[in-house]
Design a protein that fits this description.
The structure is a homodimer. With about 270 residues, chain A is an alpha/beta fold. Chain A is about 25% helix and about 30% strand. Chain A has a single domain, classed as Carbon-nitrogen hydrolase (Nitrilase/N-carbamoyl-D-aminoacid amidohydrolase). The first copy, chain A, is built from 6 helices and 16 strands. In chain A, strands 5-4-3-2-1-14 form a 6-stranded mixed β-sheet. Chain A has a 6-stranded mixed β-sheet with strand order 6-7-8-9-12-13, with helices on one face. In chain A, a hairpin with a 2-residue loop joins strand 6 and strand 7. The longest helix of chain A is centred in the N-terminal third of the chain and has 17 residues. The mean pLDDT of chain A is about 95.
Chain lengths: ~270, ~270
C-alpha cells in the first residue's frame, strides 16, 4: 500500500511567498500523516491568472533556484517523493511544469504540452512525453491539468508501464454540476480505470482575479474508485486528502482480459491524423 | 434538442423470443414518449452467457432475417432511429454487432473489435472502425461495450466528426462500488466530455446464469453531464431512460480551446505501439 497526500491549496497570484509557505506547510503536514507521495497543484509558486509576461517572469523559479532546493530538502528530511507544478524560467524561456523530487533531489521535470486559455501568451508548450520515473513505490508519471483530457496523452505513461500518475492542476470552475462528482474528478476516475493506474490530482481552491477554482482534487485507485475526494463544504481552506492505495502490478482486469494486450493498435492509425 | 431513449432490458439467454418481445415493447414505449433515437443493449436477440457455439448458432439472426426486418418496420412506423446489439450470422460466421436502423431500413452494422472474457470462443472480432452514419439529427456512431474502454477507439468517431455515440452494452457487475456513480457510467461520462459527444449506453439488468448485470445505463450530454441514469432501486425490471439532449455542433470548450484543434497528434506516435 502507498500512502498518497494530495494538497489542495488556496494559492494566489498576488502572494507568491505565501504560496510557497502554504506548500511547505502542506508538505510537512502530509509527511507527518505518513504520506510517501505528496502532490501539489499546478503553478504552485506563481498562481495562474497572469496579466502580463512580466508577472510570469517575476514569479518563475529556476531548476537550481530556492523552491526546488527547499522541496528537495523536505523530501530528504521526510524520505518522501514530491510532485508539484511550478512556473520555471529555463534560460529565459518560461514553462508550465511538473517536477518530481525525492530524497536524491530533482528527478525530472515535465513541460505542459496541451495549453488552456491564455497559457500560450505566457508559456512555451513542451513537446516531450509525460515524465516517467522509477521510484521505490513503483513507476511514477506526471503531466499537467488539461493534458489529462487528451486520452492519447494518458496512454503514453500507460504504454511506458507507469502505475501511478500524479497530476498538478488548476481547474477553473466552468459551471457544470459538481454533483454527484465534479466532471474533472470523473475524468480522473476514467483515466485511472481505463489505464489501470492510480491517479492523484491536486487542484486549487478559492478564487483568483475573478476565476473560481473547481476544488476537484481526487485520489482514484487503479479501478477508478474514489479513495479520497475534496470536501465541497470547505471551499476556501487548505485540504490535504490522504489515501492508502494499492499500486497495481499489471493491467489485468479479468481472467481473460488485460487492458494492455486487449488493445488492437494496428487499428488505431487514424488517431495520429489531426 | 434530440430526445433519446435508452432501454435497459432484463434479457435472458434461455428465452430469445421473449428478448425480442421485450425489445419491441420497449421501442414502442420509447417512441410513444417521443424518442427519436432508441438504444438497445448488446446481443439483444441472444443474451450473453453462452455455453457453446451451438447456442450462438441457434440464437443468431441474419442481416436479411426477421429481427432487422421487424426493427426496420418499427423505425418506419414511428420515424425513429434504432441502435441495438445483435448476434449476427453472416455466411456462417458469427459476430457480436451493433446495427443502425432508420426509416430506410438497415443503415449499417458494426462488428465488436475488443472482446471481453469468453467472447473469442463464440464470435469473430471485427477489424472495421466504429460505424459512423449521417442521420437527420446529426452524425451518429456506434461501437459495443468493452470497445469504449479503449480511448483510442472512441477517438475514431470523434475524428470522423460524429456527435452522438450509441453504445449497446452488457456490463457484467464486477464488484466495484456503484455509488456515487457506477464505474461503467463514469467511463461514459468521461468519453462524452473528452470527445464532446453525446453518449447513450444501454446496459442490461437482472441476472443470467450466475452473472449479475451492472444496470449502468446512462445518457451523458456532450459536457459529460448525466442527463438520465438507471434507477438502482429497480434492478430486475425494464427501464426506459429518456432525455432531451443538445447535439453539439463543434468541439469548442472555451474561448480559446477546441478539443479537436488542441490535440497534438504529431506527439502521439507511440500510441500505435503495442
Amino acid at each position: 500500500m502507498l500512502k498518497i497526500a494530495v494538497c489542495q491549496l488556496p494559492l494566489n497570484i498576488e502572494t507568491p511567498d505565501e504560496n510557497l509557505r502554504l506548500a511547505e506547510s502542506a508538505i510537512r503536514q502530509a509527511a507527518a500523516s505518513g504520506a510517501e507521495l505528496v502532490v501539489l497543484p499546478e503553478l504552485t509558486n506563481s498562481g495562474y491568472v497572469f496579466r502580463s509576461l512580466e508577472e510570469v517572469k517575476e514569479r518563475a523559479t529556476t531548476l537550481d533556484g530556492p523552491v526546488i532546493a527547499k522541496w528537495s530538502e523536505l523530501a530528504r528530511e521526510f524520505g518522501i517523493t514530491i510532485v508539484g507544478g511550478l512556473a520555471i524560467n529555463h534560460d529565459e524561456t518560461f514553462f508550465n511544469t511538473s517536477v518530481i523530487i525525492d530524497e536524491s533531489g530533482l528527478r525530472g521535470w515535465y513541460k505542459k504540452v496541451h495549453f488552456w486559455n491564455d497559457e500560450p501568451d505566457f508559456f512555451i508548450p513542451g513537446s516531450d512525453e509525460p515524465l516517467v520515473i522509477d521510484t521505490k513505490f513503483g513507476r511514477l508519471a506526471t503531466m499537467v491539468c488539461y493534458d489529462l483530457e487528451f486520452t492519447e496523452w494518458v496512454r503514453l505513461p500507460f504504454l511506458a508501464d507507469a502505475v501511478i500518475l500524479a497530476l498538478p492542476t488548476n481547474w477553473p470552475y466552468g459551471g457544470l454540476p459538481t454533483e454527484p462528482t465534479p466532471m474533472e474528478s470523473v475524468r480522473v476516475q476514467a483515466a485511472a480505470s481505463q489505464n489501470r493506474m492510480v491517479v492523484a490530482a491536486a487542484d486549487r481552491v478559492g478564487q483568483e482575479r475573478g476565476v473560481d477554482w473547481s476544488s476537484a482534487s481526487i485520489i482514484a485507485d487503479a479501478d477508478g474508485v474514489i479513495r479520497a475526494i475534496s470536501d465541497r463544504t470547505k471551499l476556501s481552506e487548505v485540504q490535504i486528502l490522504l489515501a492508502d492505495v494499492e499500486v497495481p502490478t499489471d493491467r489485468k482486469i479479468g481472467p481473460r482480459n488485460d487492458l494492455r494486450t486487449d488493445r488492437r493498435p494496428e487499428l488505431y492509425g487514424k488517431v495520429l491524423n489531426s
